Amino acid sequence: MKLRHATKSDLPTLLEIHNDAVKTLAAIWTDTLETLEDRKTWFDKRIAGGFPIIVAEDENGDVLGYGSYGSFREKSGYDKTVEHSVYVTPQLRGKGAGSVLLEKLIDLAKQDGRHVLVGAIDSENKGSIRLHERYGFRITGELPQVGFKFGRWLDLTLMTLILNGDEAPTAHAHE
Q1: 89 CB-side CA count, 13 A
Q2: Is position 33 within any domain?
Q3: Whole-angstrom Cα distance, residue 22 to residue 168?
């Protein structure tokens, strides 16, 4: 399995993986399928924001999954914290691509000077929760019934990984 930064030529495959997750998983809390233009907008915003989008591919160059991170919240006090996502093609879920992508995102976030990586996971997704625990994430919050999909309420598990022991940034005087 090879990791690389995504390119715009990957967008049709990323769209296919994303829309399959929308249709079949409680991982993306929407029923709205995206268009190629939607994925292009997402891609452009991530890249413009300085955030990575990585893909895992097999020996034939076929994309097995992708991962990225972006802003956790928009206020500047959250600038050192990012929220990540990892999605894998349906036939390869549970086969290790998610682990490889998550490990790379952790490395990239450290290199990028981030302090905390956040995962927001459907509470019923025990496989994803276990995966995150293997990489040192801790459950730091449970939000009951904050979403809905497939005709039921969904609980959200927040997991965090502190990436480094950095001191808090210097306070700035208000002008």
Answers
A1: 14
A2: yes
A3: 38
Are the C-beta atoms of 133 and 86 separated by less than 8 Å?
no
* Bridge partners, residue 96, by sequence: none
Structural domain contains residue 149: no
Q: What is the CATH number of the domain that holds 103?
A: 3.40.630.30
Tell me, yes or no, whether 62 lies in a domain: yes
The token duo for 122 is: 């459907």
Q: List, in order, residues 6 or more apart from 104 with CB less than 8 Å away.
A: 3, 54, 67
Over its length of 175 residues, how does the chain's per-residue pLDDT go in tens digits?
899 999 999 999 999 999 999 999 998 999 999 999 999 999 999 999 999 999 999 888 889 999 999 999 999 999 999 999 999 987 766 668 899 999 999 999 999 999 999 999 999 999 999 999 999 999 999 999 999 999 999 999 999 999 988 777 777 666 5
C-alpha distance from residue 69 to each of 73, 118, 144 (Å): 12, 9, 24
In a domain, 155, yes or no: no
